[in-house]
Design goal:
mainly alpha; 76% helix; globular
């Protein structure tokens, strides 16, 4: 699923994202609104991951939505 589709369906996908990354707050998901770069940055910040890992997590999440 590409970034445009994720952004367009963010309201429906937000619940799945919350389940996957429960340590992120509702505010993070509300601000992200499907922005994969923002979400990766917040994952990196919250979990202490390297940028590559955070971006991979977001990409892999997108792939599970097909």
């Amino acid at each position: 699923m590409n970034k445009d589709i994720i952004a367009g369906k963010w309201t429906q996908l937000k619940g799945k994202a919350k389940a996957k990354w429960g340590d992120l707050t509702d505010d993070v998901f509300d601000v992200a609104e499907g922005n994969s770069e923002y979400l990766a940055g917040k994952l990196q910040e919250r979990y202490g991951w390297e940028r590559d890992r955070a971006e991979k997590e977001v990409r892999d999440f997108g792939k599970t939505l097909n």
